[in-house]
Amino acid sequence: MIGLIVSGHLNFASGMASAVKAIAGEQQDIAFIDFLESISPDELEKQMRQAIDSMDCQQYLFLTDLPGGTPCNRAMAIMMQNPAVEVLAGVNLPMIVNAAFEREGCSTTELVQTLREIGHDSIQDIRKQLAQVDSVDVEEEDGL
């Protein structure tokens, strides 16, 4: 199983934690680390390293909010020192929930590819979709 570490600015991680728990239930080997104004980047990295140390996994995937932001950069520093670590930045809730469901029996490379596809597919222009539905001729059938 791949250990997951979700981190982002302010309450990004804790917000995702409550949503993931509601959708996927309790999960093992997943940590949610907020980068609050009250902690330094060094403290954030320390918490990230402690999260890895607390998990009994062979591979780890950081899921961060903003590419180039402090959580991403500190996760990247860990990745550069540890070949068992990968980082995916710019994540959203569908990606994190699916990471919880899909992380067994695959490599981090496979999981990252799957999550990138989910992230892309989960961004929807609802008005455009409704316009497409409205423009399709739908044969009406009698109801029940």
Q: How would you sum up this structure, described in words?
A:
This protein is of the alpha/beta class and 144 residues long. The protein has helices at 12-24, 41-54, 70-81, 93-102, 108-122, 126-135; strands at 2-9, 30-35, 59-64, 85-89. Strands 2-1-3-4 form a four-stranded parallel sheet, with helices on both faces. Helix 4 (93-102) packs antiparallel against helix 5 (108-122). It is globular, with a radius of gyration of 18 Å. The mean pLDDT is 94. It is found in: Cytoplasm. This is PTS system N-acetylgalactosamine-/galactosamine-specific IIA component. One of its GO terms (cellular component) is cytoplasm. One of its GO terms (molecular function) is kinase activity.
Quick summary:
The protein is α/β, with parallel strands linked by helices and 144 residues long. 51% of the residues lie in helices and 17% in strands.
* N-to-C span: 48 Å
Main sheet: strands, sense, barrel: 4 strands, parallel
Number of strands: 4
Spans of at least 5 consecutive residues whose pLDDT stays below 50 are none
> What fraction of residues sit in β-strands?
15-25%
Order of helices and strands: EHEHEHEHHH
Major β-sheet strand ordering: 2-1-3-4
**Roughly how much helix do the residues carry, as a percent range?**
40-55%
Mean pLDDT across all residues, rounded? Answer: 94
How many helices?
6
**Mass-distribution shape:** globular
Radius of gyration equals 18 Å
Structural class call reads alpha/beta
